[in-house]
């Protein structure tokens, strides 16, 4: 099933994810004081995701100076806790992303190749820059694990967009 692209410039559907952070839940799409960057990863089964998230964690202080960072997958709480214990990430790690949430963000959705990979549908990688008013400013999605944004370039671009109140692009 094909998923339509999300509408940049439009409010995203308010949604929440269970989180391993102190609040227990993370919400996106609501009015906030700061910008938010949401990174979607495939899950515990993906070694490329771990490399990307380790790089994000190393750069996290620079990111958090500019915006809130949320990382989410369709993994269970147990899998998310196992990854957190193994890698010691400092970002807000969320889990339990539903198929409806994946599709509302325009993500590619995959079925596992075997039970050794994972046992349910999961989202392919994506990154979403969300304005404080809950509208979508930037979208980067991939249909597989090998295509990821350059974190340094993405952060530099987000700083430029925020500092200069740049409009959304790709709206036509």
From TrEMBL:
UniProt KW keywords: Oxidoreductase, Peroxidase
Coiled-coil ranges (or none): none
Any single Pfam family the record assigns to this protein: AhpC-TSA
Location of the Thioredoxin domain: 6-163
NAD keyword on record: no
Protein name in the entry: Thioredoxin peroxidase
Region of interest called Disordered, as start-end residue ranges on this chain: 1-27
InterPro entries reported in the protein's UniProt record: AhpC/TSA, Thioredoxin-like_sf, Thioredoxin_domain
Cited Gene3D superfamilies: Glutaredoxin (3.40.30.10)
GO molecular function: peroxidase activity
